[in-house]
Amino acid sequence: MPREKKDGNLGLKALSVLLAVSLWFFVTYRGQSEMALEAPLEFKNIPKGLELLKYNTKKVGLNIRGHERILQGMRPMDVRVGVDLSSAKEGEADYQFNKEDVVLPRGLKVLRMEPLSVRVALDQTVTRVVPVKAYVVGTPERGYRTRSVEVKPQTLTVEGARAEVSKVSLLRTEPIDITGLDSDLMQDFKVNIDGKNIRLSASEVSVTIRLAKEGK
Length: 216
What we know:
Layout: H1 2-29, E1 32-44, E2 50-55, E3 59-67, H2 68-72, E4 80-84, E5 91-96, E6 102-103, E7 109-114, E8 117-133, E9 136-137, E10 144-152, E11 155-161, H3 162-165, E12 171-173, E13 176-177, E14 185-192, E15 198-200, E16 204-213
Parallel strand pairs: 1-4, 8-12, 9-13
Antiparallel strand pairs: 1-3, 2-8, 3-7, 4-6, 5-8, 8-11, 10-16, 11-15, 12-14, 14-16
């Protein structure tokens, strides 16, 4: 009889250990969840004298895992994929990245990502001086006419990828509507770059529009 009691105690102890281990796993994985999202690419360490001209994908599909609370509180800007271009050269090439290149809030893990590379085209950095014109629309008040339009500075330096800069031979301001104008106008206006990936030596120019009465 004592032996049977001892064996029974051992069985109870084993069951207790099993329950404890099961409870540990339950607590560890409780609240864990998965999420599918798209993360933007972030190009880093572009060599001096080169410009990012184009690339064939802007986002990477990710499956991530972590605590529901962290996933729910995550903002779009909290996740991104870094692409190191420190060894890049002029021209087109494929650049690899992996899970280690994903920037995530602490406590999250990347399970899957697609694609694993991006094709990038790099071009030489060049500059060019181009004229700036005021883009005037509309007509002045009846009895007035436009006597002169002056822009200062008259030229700006454009910087960027050679393929982009070569397309820019003239810059214009944003539209300046003079409909109903009956006095001279002196104001700063933004320069329109039409979405081109270029940089200007100044983002605004000063425009002076002088009017004259009809017949004078």
